[in-house]
């Protein structure tokens, strides 16, 4: 069974690729960094294709290269653009939307014929707990990921019963994307303390949830946002 991982060169995408490969999936890895993709493919097997998700034609070609039958698609692409609303530009909003929401839409649209050719296909998109929780300086990324959750719900309804569609919504996770927030030990410790489980996420935490949603074990789950956040979105352990 072939599973497409978009954003496979990133922290969560690479962790998910390794998990799925160890479970017997053939991975078709898509990302912007050719060297990282080649290294990942050399490690776990499968195929890869280089594409920027904001390049519609390149993304379509990369997804089509996965073949005519695809059992799963994970769109592990995100951005962390934190600015107060007074400093957010139209360019910021458009870039975040194109990367997070429009790219996810195109990915599903291009993969749909191959997903329909497979039995019990599954799609996993990535959101953030900031959509439901609400954090300062998250207006641009909150709008973009909110659109991802709306897309997920619409697709889950439209594509049922043939294809399941769900979201994973992590809290701050230690990946290269989040290095600006996690590389400072003082800042990382302070943010970790805001979580009931008292640590930041690891890439494999979110990857484990996504791997479950892509597996037959989740065959009766669709239209859901799964928070992988150390309890931050729902629990208050102090005060």
Automatic annotation (TrEMBL):
Example GO molecular function: oxidoreductase activity
KW Chaperone (keyword) present: no
Sorted UniProt keywords: Oxidoreductase
Organism superkingdom: Bacteria
Listed CDD domains: SDR_c
Record Pfam families: adh_short_C2
PANTHER family associated with the record: DIHYDROANTICAPSIN 7-DEHYDROGENASE
Family: Belongs to the short-chain dehydrogenases/reductases (SDR) family.
The protein, known as: Short-chain dehydrogenase
Species whose genome carries this gene: Aestuariivirga litoralis
Phylogenetic placement of the source organism: Bacteria, Pseudomonadati, Pseudomonadota, Alphaproteobacteria, Hyphomicrobiales
């Amino acid at each position: 069974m072939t599973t497409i991982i978009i954003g496979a060169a990133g922290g969560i995408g690479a962790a998910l690729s390794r998990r799925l490969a160890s479970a017997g999936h053939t991975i078709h890895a898509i990302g912007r960094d050719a060297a990282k993709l080649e290294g990942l493919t050399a490690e776990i097997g499968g195929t890869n294709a280089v594409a920027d998700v904001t390049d519609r034609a390149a993304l379509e070609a990369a997804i089509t290269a996965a073949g005519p039958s695809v059992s799963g698609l994970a769109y592990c692409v995100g951005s962390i653009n934190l600015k107060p609303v007074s400093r957010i530009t139209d360019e910021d909003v458009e870039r975040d939307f194109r990367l997070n929401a429009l790219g996810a839409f195109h990915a599903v649209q291009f993969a749909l014929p191959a997903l329909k050719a497979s039995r019990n296909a599954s799609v996993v998109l990535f959101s953030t707990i900031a959509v439901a929780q609400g954090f300062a300086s998250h207006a641009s990324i909150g709008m973009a990921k909110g659109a991802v959750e709306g897309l997920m719900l619409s697709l889950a309804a439209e594509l049922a019963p043939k294809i399941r569609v769900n979201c994973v919504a992590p809290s701050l996770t230690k990946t290269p994307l989040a290095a600006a927030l996690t590389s400072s030990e003082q800042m990382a410790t302070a943010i970790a303390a805001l979580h009931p489980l008292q640590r930041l996420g690891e890439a494999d935490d979110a990857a484990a949830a996504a791997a479950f949603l892509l597996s037959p074990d989740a065959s009766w789950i669709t239209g859901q946002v799964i928070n992988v956040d150390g309890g931050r979105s729902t629990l208050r352990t102090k005060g």
